[in-house]
Amino acid sequence: MVLLEIKNLHVEIDGKEILKGLDLTVNAGEVHAIMGPNGSGKSTLAYVLAGKADYTPTAGEVLFNGKNIFDMTPDERAAAGLFLAFQYPLEIPGVATMTFLRTALNAQRKKRGEVELSTPEFIKKVRETAGKLNIDQDMLRRAVNVGFSGGEKKRNEILQMALLEPRVAVLDETDSGLDIDALKIVADGVNRLRAPQRSFVVITHYQRLLSYIVPDIVHVLSAGRIVKTGGKELALELEARGYAEYQEEAVA
Amino acid sequence: MNAGVATIKTAAETELAQVFALARGSLPGDDAVSAQREAAFGVFAKEGLPHRRVEDWKYTDLRALMREAKPLAPPPDAVAKTLAKSAGALLGDVETRRLVFVDGAFVAELSDLANLENGLAVGSLADALSGSDPVLTQHLGKLAPASDVAVALNTALMGDGAVIRIAAGSTIERPLHLLFVASGKPAASFVRSLVVVERGARAMIIESHEGPAGIDYQVNAALELFVGDAAHVDHVKIIGEGADALHVSTLAAAIGAHARFNAFSFTVGGAVVRNQLFLKFDGEGIVAGIRGATLLKGRQHADTTLVANHVAPDCQSREVFKTVLDDEAHGVFQGRIIVRRQAQRTDAKMMTQALLLSERAEADNKPELEIFADDVQCGHGATAGAIDEDLKFYLLARGIPAAEAEALLIQAFLGEAIEGIEHAGLREALLETVAAWLKARK
User: Fold this and answer.
1) Residues B132, B137, B138, B141: what is their CA dihedral angle, to the nearest 10 degrees?
2) Of chain B's two ends, which shows fewer C-beta atoms within 10 Å, N or C?
3) What whole-number distance in Å separates Cα of residue A213 and Cα of residue B186?
4) How far is B320 from chain A (nearest CA, A)?
């Protein structure tokens, strides 16, 4: 079953074209890795899927579960099961992590016509999930990401993903700024969520993360297009040889 | 007076002179009080209503904003008193001792006067003026700046108010709530209160002002507050006037050595509001938190003007004022910290921030430091801006709808000021009011 289908997607930021005809098909249960050099459009892809303003699609379409996502607001996309783990999670002073998580979860449930979780039900769910990600209670009481280390912020992203249980999760350079222990915790959190009905798009610059989150399919993104697709061994090849040949290909 | 500039009295100025001429014979007080009134009115007669060329009133041109002066409100009748019974909802279920004033007049039968705590004495200003109360003669007019025209008009026309004395060492657990209600007459009230908290005593004074929308009533309220040495006093002012009201109020406080003092101003109502705080740090070792939150929409105009005057050494003050502005609202914050030569080791930090929810809203922030001592830690900051789109997108991306995402961010913004209120129930009540205000948006 196709969960996410991107066809000939062109995206501009401030009049500059970043994505230039990107195609990608993600089936349920698959883990796709998107690798590429800096400036190839990896983060643009993540943001345009989530619906960030100023990322303007000029051609092509994106179907999520059969529906055109450009007809949906960012919160509608999230409620429909699309999740973006941010490369740089934002700090929100004055909003307690617990409040943030509960507001998000219940807003999504409400939109889907599901019953909102009561406070005790919610707390139980958060505690269980947080425990598995080595997130202590103190972190949950603090304002969202305020004073969190880089690793804590990324773990908080994975916690949100685990609570929100998306159909498609896009991880934008979740490995950046993580030491090996934090990387393992994050990867473990992702692997635990792998399921036949759920898919992942893992965006990364380095192969390292893919040793822990083993992808089914690896794509090379260069100059706004997918220029090569292969199995997990493609990631190792890229690690050994770098992106130089693809950059030249794209320029040519 | 500059040559060639003729002073033309505005309608409101002429009307105020008529109001005073009509009332001067019947206002309460002995000859000494009458003399005080005459002198105060003289200040107004000379200066007129403050306007934009008077630096302290630069952003609140009362001369332009106050088109007419209303007659003095008549004593409340039974209908007005009945309306006042449902007032005070802004405080939620905070347990207080209420002193109720309807159209500026004290109403004993609506007030909680039974079982006063030991050390607490309460009364009305009208009674105190008529009976030459010694507390009054010793304190009245000693703190409010006589040269300020708003204060001068208040002194000239003060009719009633609260007179409260808290004896040395007493702790008054139940907050005292001065509830000022306008019943809906297009009239003016001039209320003056006096609160004397003696050495080592502890009390919380809540002053709230409310009235119906659709009536352009006017309120001029002043409160003089004496905080004794080592006392612990919280003052909270809630300005929840009706949407068409003009409200000018003044808190003038002198704080004694080693006292703890917290002041909070919450402004949400009124068409035109001027909220003045004149605080004198009169003794060493004071710790003070001066905060405020203002929520404005439509064409509301609200001005908070603060003067923190440090005259004694080793005091600490923190000032945090937050304003949220929607539609075409206009918010003003003027904050001046003065550190006198002898006020060494003063530690004063002031922050004022405005959050603009509309492109047509306007915020003016004017923080000032005047430092004459050489060993101090003082600072100020001011910001004005819109909701952070990146933060909002983060919330949207988690499935939180736009209106709810904005509400969360606005609550967080104001929270930084409101969290400073020590009384949990009151904090909750104000956060509820914020939530209701946000819900009414759009």
Assistant:
1) 150
2) N
3) 72
4) 15
Global confidence as pTM = 0.91
**Is residue B431 domain-resident?**
no
Q: Closest Cα of chain B to A248: distance in Å?
A: 34
Of A53, A78, A90, the CB nearest to B391: A90
Structural domain spans, chain A: 1-81+168-181+215-252, 89-166
Tell me if B396 and A108 make a contact (CB, 8 A cut-off).
no
Residues in A closer than 8 angstroms to B390, CB to CB, are: 90
CA dihedral A208, A52, A67, A23 (to 10 degrees): -50
Q: Tens-of-pLDDT digits for all 442 residues of chain B?
A: 444 444 689 999 999 999 999 999 999 999 999 999 999 999 999 999 999 999 999 999 999 999 999 999 999 999 999 988 889 888 988 999 999 999 999 999 999 999 999 999 999 999 999 887 888 889 999 999 999 999 999 999 999 999 999 999 999 999 999 999 999 999 999 999 999 999 999 999 999 999 999 999 999 999 999 999 999 999 999 999 999 999 999 999 999 999 999 999 999 999 999 999 999 999 999 999 999 999 999 999 999 999 999 999 999 999 999 999 999 999 999 999 999 999 999 999 999 999 999 999 999 999 999 999 999 999 999 999 999 999 999 999 999 999 999 999 999 999 999 999 999 999 999 999 999 999 998 6
Does the beta-carbon distance from B396 to A86 stay under 8 Å?
no
Residues from chain A that touch B391, judged by Cβ atoms under 8 A, are: 90, 92
* Any A CB within 8 A of B109 CB: no
* Inter-chain residue contact A94 with B416, CB threshold 8 Å: yes
For residue B439, tell me if it sits in a domain: no
Say how many C-beta atoms besides its own lie within 10 A of residue A11's C-beta: 22
CATH for A1-81+168-181+215-252, options being 3.40.50.150, 3.40.50.300, 1.20.1250.20, 3.90.1170.50: 3.40.50.300
Quick check: A160 and B398 CB within 8 A?
A: yes
